[in-house]
Amino acid sequence: MFGGPPPQLSAAEIRAQEDEANLTIQKVIVGAVLLYLSSTKPPKHQRTTNSAGNNTMARLPVKKKSKTGPATPVKPRPKTSLTTSVKARSSLGSFPSSSSPALKRESESDSYYENDDPPDEIHKSPFVNSVWKSNEVSDRAKSVQIKEQAVQKGLAALDKFITTMRLHLATNPSAQGRIDKILTIKKRKRSLEVYVGFLGSTGSGKTTIVNALLGMKDLLPSMTGRACTAVVVEVSKNEVDDIASRFRARIFFMTKDEWKAELEQLFLDLQPEAAAMDDDDDETDPDERNDRINHAFDRVKAVYPHIEDIDGLKATSAAALLEHSSVSKLFGFPAEIAHASKTEFSKALKIYVDSGKSNSKAAALWPLVKLVKVFVKAPILDTGITLVDLPGSSDSNSARSAVAAAYYKKLTITCIVANAIRGIDEKNAHDLLGNITKRNLQLDGLYNQESLCFILSQTDRDFDKTSKNGGYIEDHPELQEKCFDDAQQVSADKKKALDLERQTKELAASIAKSKKAKRGLLDEIEDIIDPVTDGQKRKLSQLQQTSGPPSVMSTLASLRKKLADAEEAIQTEESQVSSLGRRKSNIELALWHARSRIASQCIKYRNALSAEAIRQDFTKSLLEMGPYQVRTGRAPGFTTVQDTEIPALRDWLIGTTLDTRAKYALAFLADVENFVAWMQPWINDSYGDTKMKAEMREHWEPDLNGKVLKLQQSFSQLGLSTATKMKNHVQINIYAKVPGAEKIAAAKAPEIAKKWGRIHWSTHKIVNRHRGTWTNSRGDKHHWNDDIVHDVTTVLLPSWTSTFTDDIPRELALYIESSGTLISDFAESVEGTVFGADVYDALQVLKDHISRTKVLLSDQTESAFDGVGKSMRSTHYLAAPAVKEFLEPMYAKCTSEGGKGHFKRNKATHKSQMKDEGKRMHHASNKAVKTALDKFLNTIPATLVGASNAVIEQIIGEVKLFFDQNTSHGTHNKTRKVISNTKIRLRNDLSSNINDLAKSWESNDQAQIKYQNDDSEDELFDDDRLFDVDKLRKGVDDEEDYEDSSAEDD
User: Which residues form the Dynamin N-terminal domain (predicted)?
Assistant: First the structure.
């Protein structure tokens, strides 16, 4: 019945059906032309303006194009008005669901006619109601969170698109091009990386602050007052969801050669001839050398615990230690640790990072480690922030120093942690950063209010300690008036507490005496009632005897009365003790509150003084970079951390990421939305034939491709022009001023050598040996090569800052703006192309899609140039190595010197070097910077072209798609089209996917994200406010939230 052969028609019936079909085709052709003339909007180049200044339509119908040339215009026909009109299909329309009547009709029939358009909703964007487009959310953090949630939904939707199209790939091969485009979109999605580094002296509290920001007490080992974290520790988001790997770490060890260099230096210092070589004319001061040996030996002993003393070390060799079984397999290979428990993870991590002395006989591996990367889940890490705990200044290991130096260059935000116990004043505020670190931040463009934060740690400690003038309040008379009442209360309450303690002791002694008397009375009564032999036990029934001779009973009555009196006295005194205890508790509580108020006043006072000193030094340093840098008012984040203020610090760090995160999210969301708009004409094209004749395509496609080529050439010319302008800024602002800077710095070079000569001769020798860079065991840093460069950069700093902060970014912004204009002009030229009425609607779609590429161009250009811009600014780091290379003969000569008088000879060598070769030295360092900077400047045209090529590729794809979808394979246009059922099924599935995405973007829901604290085994930071942006910004209470006891952990 079903699927059998169709009934046979007679010849007359067949001719009748053919005549009816031909008539229908003619009617449809005429109707389509008339509808076009009455209802569509002509291209701009076909509009005229009447005497009233209003736009009117002057239509130029197109004759059939000959095979040898373009179509020629004919005389305009009278305007025809019809009562009906057809809305143009738009690629921005919403997508009907698979259950819509239109799609059902298509699926139920082998063919249908073009006037069966989908409903009017197809002309609307499916994403107009997306919540991420709304401007109603005033909270920036909440707004960014909504956009990032939309990004995750967009990524999921793209994966669904790929899955759907792969299911239909066999019957719709053109889907592969769409899959490739999705993969390109996902690849160019940008993720924010913000490196936040914590710098400070040993024991300043850097690790404690990192733990607090993570909400995980004791995750990283910390110990107040001593060096604990000995290596660079990077903490970033854990992308692994496996419960067994909730806490992960990757440990990077030194290479064999790096550890060998440290061992050989130690053995060299131990040799007697080395000590003799270091001797000089003045009195030998072995402290520096002995400190160096002891510090190095402590590291060696930690790795090789079987070596108990220096004599034991002398009995072995560096080669033997390198091949020891405990270390030989570690060199150069990273180790991995992972745990579900934070406590267990912290224990496992400790041997790799904690430099504290351990009572364990097991080897500690931290001396061999140069970097540890920790991966955990924490809200602050979800924002793209990576926390970097940089070790204190007491490590002289060159491998770890190199890792730390590399991180300094990567930092986006620098947090300077300073121990505030001694306070920060005008004298030491300048030394918090150090001249070299401060100068590098200035040259990197990171010495500003958005990239620099000063944190005063331990602000609540040591107020009770006395100084030579008294306590903290006595040292600062301004506090005495504020704290007078509370100080008086503390004094009075302390006296009361002491008096109550005295009374309590007296009562306790009386109670003890009464109890002793009671025990004696009981013994007497027991002996009267029932005497027993020594060693025997009296039964309870015997003690309760109440009958006997009158004399005995009288004695018992007297004893029992004394016993009752004693018990009453004990009860009364115990009641008095309880009363005294309650009074003492109340006094101690009042005393605690009074002391807290005093401490609060001291903290505020100390913080205010310290913050003001830091702020003044910060402002002075900004003036070095140019007066335009100075801003008035209180700088966000540039304040003292009151009490703990961890929530406020966290909010500030997160706040610095908001603008960039929003920018990245919007760029990706625009990519997704544009992709859907680009894909819609292909989705909706369920026909086998389209409108444009093949011969028309043969003429117009090369013409349009030629315009694309001209656009590409315009991009290239604009990029070259922009690069030339950037080079000119560098030439005028920096290169032209280098000779003068070299002359000034060369004149100061002898003074630098003179300053080096003021240190002890043994230190002078070791710094020469290490080619100008050395940190001793006390944390004193010597960086001679950077000292030399500092004088040059002091002169060039304002120009360097203005060039890379203002001039080059401005040229880049102008390039993006001009490129956008080129795209707009190209889109207008496409609209003005005379293809004929049949493809006018599709032409409007093409114009819209081309215009959308401006967003892509801006994002790709900024992304590509970001790396080049940072690289150009970082070229200043090449100056110090160039100085080191230039001074290599000087360092080598001074290292080889020894014996009596060698310190004087070395100082003379330095003096002559700086005096005679100072200018050449600075020229060599500046040449190294210029060579690298020129190299990056020369890559700018290619960088900009590479970014614009992404746009060109997309436009080429749009043009090809336009012609593919709007060209027939024959020589005549057809109005009747044959449906591809496989394409309809694909359209139904993709339409459903797109509708799902539209609905998800219209909602503000998100899956509940679970962090580690949902497991009772590890109480990390048990506070829902961490997962609520609104509450997160209000801060958290440290006493309640910063709890994590091992008892609860295990």
Answer: 196-439
